[in-house]
Structure formats: C-alpha cells, structure tokens
Specification:
Blueprint lengths: L2 E2 H11 L4 E4 L6 H9 L5 E4 L3 H15 L3 E5 L3 H15 L4 E7 L15 H4 L4 E6 L6 H15 L2 E7 L6 E2 L19 H13 L3 E5 L7 H10 L4 E3 L24 H7 L4 E5 L16 E6 L13 E4 L2 H9 L9 H21 L8 H11 L5 E4 L3 H9 L7 E3 L10 H11 L5 E6 H5 L5 H6 L5 E6 L4 H9 L14 H7 L3 E5 L2 H11 L7 E6 L12 H18 L8 H8 L1
Parallel strand pairs: 2-3, 2-4, 4-5, 5-7, 6-7, 9-10, 9-11, 11-12, 12-13, 14-15, 14-16, 16-17, 17-19, 18-19
Antiparallel strand pairs: 1-8
Helix pairs in contact: 1-2, 1-6, 3-4, 3-14, 8-10, 9-11, 12-13, 12-19
EC number: 1.2.5.1
Family: Belongs to the TPP enzyme family.
Pfam family, one: TPP_enzyme_M
Amino acid sequence: MATKAADQLVSVLMDWQVKHVFGLPGDSIDTTVDALRRHQDKIKFVQVRHEEVAALSAAATAKLTGGLGVCLSIGGPGAIHLLNGLYDAKMDHVPVLALLGQVTTSNMNEGFFQEVNTPKLFDDVAVYNKTVMASDNLGQIVDTAIRTAFTEKGVAVLTIPDDLPAQKETASYQDSAAAFALNVPKVDPKQLEDVASMLQQAQKPLALIGRGAEHAGALVQKFVEANHIPFIQTMPAKGTIADDHPNSLGNVGKLGTKPAYEAMKATDLLFMIGTNYPYTPYLPAEGQAKCVQIDTRPENLGKRYSVDVAVDGDVGTFFTELNAKGSLRDDDRFLKACQKNMESWNKWMSEKRLLATNPASPEAVFATIDQTAPKDAIYSIDVGTSTSWGARFLNVQPTQKYTISAWLGTMGCGLPGAIAGAEAFPKRQNISVAGDGAFAMVMQDFVTAVKYKLPIIMVVMNNQKLAFIEYEQQSAGQLNYEIDLADMDYAKIAEAAGGIGYTARSNDEFKNALAKAYKETDKPVLINTYVQDDAPLPGKIVGDEAKGYMKYGSEYLENYWKIPSMPPLKDIMRQFF
C-alpha cells in the first residue's frame, strides 16, 4: 500500500520517541504539517506564535528530557526566525531536529517568493545540514539526521521542498531508532590508578561538576562524600547534587559564591567533571593545581586548564569504577575549612532571604519560590539578573529540573522552556522567572500556554530596567545609557491572552499571588512582580571590576555632580574581603 513520503517522515519521528513538534504551519511546510495532522494521536503539534519560541522550546525539550527536540517552520522568514533557538541548542550541546520548508523543486533556484538558501544560512549552526532532493529517501535522510544529532549532540537541519513529502511511496523504510546506542568508552585502568594516587597525595581537592554529570549525580555524590571533597556546580548543572548538600560551595564566577572563588584559588587538585567551564579567571592559576578532567568530547580536554589526567569517557562509567576502590582519603581539613567559609556566606544569604520591602526584594522573591516549589518542580530561568538570583537563592534538588540558556545566554528563553517543560511533564509544576526585558521579547507566546491549558507559573521581575546591563556598564567603568524600560502591565497582558494575571508590589503580595498560582490546574498564571533594583554583586569582586566601578563613580560624579546610587557598603566590602 502506497503512503505519502511525509508519513514516512512522521513514522521515523515516532520511532525515535518524539512526542512534540513546535512550530507554525505555512505554505512551504504544509505537506509535512498535514502528515502530523494525520498522526496527531501519536505526536502533538504545538503551534507557537513566533518561530524563535519553537526552536527555544525544542532546545529546552532536549535539555529536560535527554531526547530529541523538534521544531519546524516555513522556509525564508520562518526559518530565519528559528536560528536563535537553534544556536542555543548548538551551544548547549543538545540534539534538535529542525524541519524547514522550501519552495517546490520546480521553483527552486529561480529566486522564487520566500526562497532563501537555507543550507548556506544554517551551515554554522548544524552538525547535519541537507536539502532533500527526492521523496524516496526522505525517511532515510530523517533517520540519519536524528542519529547525527544524537551522536554529535547538536542540531540537524533538513530543508524539504514542499512537493516532495506529498509524493506516494511504495517502499517502506526501516529506521535505526531501535538499534541505536552511543558507544561508551572503556575506562583505562592506568588512568584510574593515576587518579587514585593523585587524590591520596592531594591536600585540597575540589570538584567542579558540569552538565555532563547530570545522569550520574548519585555516583559523583558518593565520590565526593567518601573522599571529603567540596564541590562546585556550574549553572546548567544545578541540582545534579542537591544545592544545599553539606559539601556544596554553590556556583563559581560572576554569579557564584565567594567561598567557591576562594576554594578555586586554594585547591591543589581540581576535578573537572563533565564541564568545559569557560571563565578561566575563576579557575586556579595555571600551574597551581593538578587537574583531572572527564568529558565525552575529547576536544574539551585541557581546553580551559592544563590537565594531568584527561579521561575521554562517560562520567558515570568512570566513577562507577573509581568508587569501587572505596574511600581513598580521610583528610577532611580542607572540606571543613570550606564548610566554615560557606556557613558565613549562607548566613549573609539568609539575611537577604528575609528582606521585607516594597517594591519586593528579588532575593526574597526567589527565596519564597525556593521554599514553596514542589519537590519535583521544573525551573526555567531566563537570562539577566534572574539568572543571578536563581543561582544563589534556588536550592535545586536532584528530584527537580533546572534549565537555562547556558552558553548562548539568550534573553527570552524562560517562557519557551516552561512551555516545553509543561508539555513534556504535564503532571509537574513548571515555574519560569524572567526579567521584564527578557519576558517582553517572547510575551506573545503566553497565549500558547493558554491555548494548550498549561498551568505554568510565569514570574516577571519588573524593575523597568535592563538591570544586568546596568551593572555590566558600571563594572566596565561606563555611564549607564539606554537601560531604562517603559513599564507595561504584564498582568493585564496575561489576562488579555486568556490567562490569569496578578500584580505584586511587595514580598507579602508576591507570597499571596504565588499561593494562588499553585492552585491553578488548567491555566497559566503570570505574576507581575515589581522589584527593587538590587545589584547581584559578584561572589568576589576582582581587580578589573573594582577599577571599573571606581571609574564609573568618577565619571558619574563628573557628569552629574552627585555620587551614584551604589549597593550598601557592607555588601561591597563582603565581596572584597
């Protein structure tokens, strides 16, 4: 029995366990969309209002589930809109398939309406990038594209002229989904012995845990506990081990803690576990520490810091065998010193959590979310000061999930992430937090959550500023320019879209609104939260930042004849000493 080539395409997607496709229908992709209509009982097509949201949602699906994220669009303008979200997937190394429409084969290469050279346009973002030229191998090409996306941990792009999926095919295609498995390199026994010896000799070992360890959190936790090792987690790895674990020093870097910074500058043995952490000034000084790095991407080994043992392999496999050796050291002096340092930091943070202000304190807002969120909550945090507060005031647990735009750092990722989380995990509470600048970039898709009855909670931190840019300009010694945003009533926008909108102007009002939001089961809730313009100071103010702030203060005084508003002196002093 003949079937359309588009049905083969959808059949391959189903075999690869794809449950959702995000996108917008349109003329050059409609034959593919029509096949999704015929199989809507197996794959849900989620209609968004902007293709960027489709790609960001597909990327978030891959991050949250470990499976394939899929998005589609027409060719030309729709495909161009996908690029930002696909770069997020590329830079965070997650598998995404983008299906792009194209003019019919008879009109290609004639400069037809909306015809864009998509293979050339997507060349940098894609690990697999092909134009389908015939219908009889469409299933095979889709299968190869998906397999490559998983193998290379990146984006596969298929440009499909719209006449091809409608053609009839008599031959069936057996895809490779059931047989596919990624090879896990074996652990080198000599490397195990070398690591064990280095650990036994170390006095100040420290673990930096990245997203590559998220599937092996329990194994890494067993290792750091048995060997009395303090650990730091990168931002996308939050919750791999509980953020409030006794050995945790939080994050490191501009958004991190002072104890984490100081531990990095003291360590004599650094474990880089599934991470390619890019901010080298926050790593130990070159030559200060020995280093063990475990990563499935060999090109990352030694890229940021010179390594003594470079393990090209899987974190879980490596620590399964290393843990089999039992405890390798019983010296807990460095751990106890770090814990004492962390106690002082946590005491300071606990004071911030209790701030009762009007407008609301962003620290207290995040603390309220942290205290009330379900044990299996899914967080989707946007880029900006929300990222800073999330890093410090959300104690993410292994039973929860946490997604951000880590390497691209694109504003507007929060709402698409929550939509993806609610579609993938409909029984779990999805909470997104975004600044007013970030939310405004994608706010039209709040109606998508309304349409599909997704009970997400969208918290908008409204300070009428691009606040993170404000602090970046200041730390660079520049006067603030064009960072102020016109206020909008986001609660009314939510209501106009058919959802529920609350406005909170104090911590107590936010608590009340959040309590109501948790009770909703079939409507998204937006809490427009007016917050103070608090500065998320770095965990440790380093030399260049200090010089920048001094230059900013001098420039401000010279131009405006008054001293600029700055964070409390006690806060600044704590970051220095």
